[in-house]
TrEMBL record:
SUPFAM superfamilies registered for this protein in UniProt: UDP-Glycosyltransferase/glycogen phosphorylase
Protein's UniProt name: Trehalose synthase complex regulatory subunit TSL1
Gene3D superfamilies found in the cross-reference section: Glycogen Phosphorylase B
Keywords carried by this UniProt record: Phosphoprotein
UniProt biased composition (Polar residues): 1-10
Gene Ontology BP term (one): trehalose biosynthetic process
InterPro entries the UniProt entry points to: Glyco_trans_20 (IPR001830), Trehalose_PPase (IPR003337)
Organism whose genome encodes this protein: Australozyma saopauloensis
Amino acid sequence: MHTPAANSPMASKREPEMSSAEEFFDKSRKLPDLARALGDTVNDKLGPQLIQPRSKFSNAGLPALVVEPKKKSVDGLPGMKISRTSSFINANPTAHRSPLLRSASEFKGRSGLSRQFLNFSLEKRGSTSAVFFDDDDYSEPSSTKARSSSLIREPFDVGSGIMDYDEGEDAEKLAPYGGFSRSNLELSILNRDNVFSHAPWQIERAEKGNGSLVNAVDLASECGSIHNSRWVGAMSLPCDAVPTNVLDDISEKLKDEYSCDAVFIDDETFQGHYNSFCKQILWPTLHYQIPDDPKSKAFEEHLYNYYKKVNQMVADKIVEAYKRENNHKSPKDPQNMIWIHDYHLFLVPSMVREQLPEAQIGFFLHVSFPSSEVFRCLAQRESLLKGVLGADCVTFQTEEYVRHFLQTSSRLLLADFNDFGIVFNGKYTKVNTIPVGIDVPSLQKIVDSHEVQEWQKMIRERWRNQTLLVSRDKLDKLRGVKQKLLAYENYLHKNPSKVENTVMIQIFIGLQDDDDYETEVMEIISRINSLPTNIYTAQPVVVLRHDIDFDQYIALLTEADTFIVSSMREGLNVTCHEFIVASHEKKAPLIISEFTGSSHLLDCEGKGALLVNPWDTRTFGDKIERAMNMEQGEKEERWKKCFEVVETHNSISWVKSCIESINEAWIFNQEKSSVTTKPFTSEVFSKFMDTTDDKRLFVINVDDPSLNFDRQGGKTALSLSRVGIILNTLTSNPKNIVLFASIMSRDEMELLFNNVGKAGLIAEFGGYIKLPGKSHWISVFDDHQIGVWTPQVAQVFRAKAERLPGSKTIVSDCTVRLVANTALVHDPKRSADVMGECIQYVNDAFGESEELHATIVDGSVVVQQKNLSIRAIHFLISYYSSDISGDVLTQLFNIKRVESMSGTMFRNAIVDSPTAPLPHGIDHLSHLFYSGGMNPIDEGIYDIAHTLKKDKFVANTLTVAVNNDNSQNVSSADYSCMGQNELFGILGQACKDFAES
């Protein structure tokens, strides 16, 4: 008769089974020489001992105050004992009662800041004494604990220690907050020598960190893609316990022998930056897990100061190393660049840019980037975005993250974006996708190694005649472990015959810090493991609670019948790539979450990996069934597709592509910045007029007179009489072709320029063109699409305008505008939010389907088809300078005729015959003059003008940017002037001088 279920045969059988798999990997390791192993153990005991500094913030103190209510189980500080004897001293067992403190003690040092790869230990060679915290996770019988406590309470001497007691135990003996329990302790402890000031030390590679980045850079260096590199980052050791002179020595050794410039961060700042702001605010937000703890919100701004401080320290160290190592090199050198990595250093690009304005700077984000709706929840959202935009090139793992970044920057910063990237404050930042890869040849060597093959044999023997499903995750909610197990459970319920011959091997890596979630997962595992009716069969789920050796892991991948990645949100998961390479014999299928960065690569248009939605556990289970029942031919075809992707997107190509992108972006910015904007004068214009006898095209962009205001109310109306005088002077020469352009509609422009018959007109930023001397308008856009998006956009904009007093919506034939007007003066913050929402709505809903683009122009959100103004300029250049016939131009630019003052369009009747056959070959168009504003639309035309001149399509160009608000905006135009009246004043004076001459 059995009493509780815990003592039943089934229960007693299950518990050892779970640990037997761990014992299999732990105890099956073959030692090369037992005698040598025994000798190593003796030397470890009798030889010099390694010690390492501990952060005073490695306990629960700061995190508990900042991010979560302090639990009773984590009160107090970890215990410590100091001894001069030759025996090992264990830390206070009571300190191990706290899971949070126990987790902290498992770290030899603190986590890396910037994906560093170096660590160091201090070695005491002169004696066998040691001062350390015990990292063993053990529990003692209560009698042992009592004896230990009684020993500690003996009168204090040199060999005694400091203990923290449980709350309520000997309360009268506890010291007041910040003090000592005995008066003689302070003098004894504070006067004790710092062991780290005398102990020899050595530098070792750290086991943790971004290994894929380090390996990729090393491989790129070996193959010659990188000629020389230096690492800048934070050390993975607490610095407070190590004297400054020792840190200086370490820094010099790293600098001279390891090409590393180390940043030493005090423990409090590091804790606030990495463990608090990065891991508990930035990391969850970037993965769609918005922190909602009230204390984390209250301290978020405080923690941001730590984040900003560390970023500034890293930026200063980068600048110092750059000036020391690369100051003699030209900024044009493709190898002379700064490559910054990951979300820990969002602010560094702009900080470096402030000190090195000419440097090539790239930024790569290894994790996901959320939608603007999530990112905008961060209190420091604008500062973080502006920090990243200090780089010449920002690279992400997937196109989805690129789209989110562009939309977020557009919405929160009102930055414009195009096919190249983002335009913000006159600077272009290239934004692209280059996924991280792995070193396929090196991994193939490991797969074929003797060690892996030996493990393959043992795994086959251990799980003979079993179907293996393998997963490797950290036990947290983002990895989708719970959903994966539920899907597996659904599969087994649907296929009961598979229960006794299917095994999922789940490897958990890292520390588990969510006890509630772990409990949920273990309950599901227990439920699944209770499905077999035969207690002697293998469990359906085998859990390895710690990571295994890499050889073991690769061997497990080679024997797996499928590999499952179920992450809710994740950047690129290189374990998928490793599985593809390791499975070259079995050609096993890969099951991967569609929310993982690798999914878009390995999907292979539906012919590669099997994509799943982790939240849909029923369909997830069906995908597991499909993978288990897949024909070998389909397996091989899918594996081949995936392997081609993995082989193509390898680590070396990733580094090379990133370097090339940074260099291309820097060159593009340099070309734009080299066009120095100078004051526009009449002499400049006169020189432009004197340099040719061929045709000249003048396009002058004028403001909408109904919007003649600025925030200071100082903008004045354009004098049409002055325009008439200038126009008469310019058009008196038949070789001058003059057109006025504006955002205004056709009706408004015809009314405004009714008496200016010799000039052509361009309405709605290029949507409509009225050629000089013609009575009808032509359009250069697809009119079929106008009726699709215009009503929807107009409805949304009108609703926004109603909620923003002082604004209005203007709907034209091919353009919709939200004009902020006085709202920008009275409520600039609200106006910016509304305009950002409008931009995001248009670009999200119609950006791809209807090829629309929304951007900011003079305080208004302008919506029209992409590159409409550039299309109009291209048409004019082609029309007046090439031998292309009117029919060809009609088809090439989708030209349609539109009757004046009417929306009626007549197809195939554009360029009536008198306009097409110009005397080509006699008077070619050789000069282009364009004046416009400082907005994304006009800036695009300035770039086109420079390209036309560079490609020698026209002999000379002159571009003038009109600055209407006295701001210091940067422009790629050749010249600038203050306001339209100044522009026309200069043009009038030049025309007068030209006429007199």
